[in-house]
Amino acid sequence: MQILNKEQVNIVSLEDPVEYYIDGLNQSQVHPEIGYDFASGLRQILRQDPDVIMVGEIRDNETAGLAIHAALTGHIVLSTLHTNNAAGVIPRLVDMKVEPFLLPAALNLMVAQRLIPRLCQQCLSKKEPSSEIKAIIEKTLKEMDPQVLEELEGEQISSYQIFESKGCPACKGKGVSGRVALFEILQMTKELEEIVVSRKSESEIVKEAKRQKMITLRQDGVIKALKGLVSLEAVLRETEEF
Question: If 242 and its partner were Cys, which of 9, 112, 195, 216 is the partner (CB 3.0–4.6 Å)?
Answer without folding.
Answer: 216
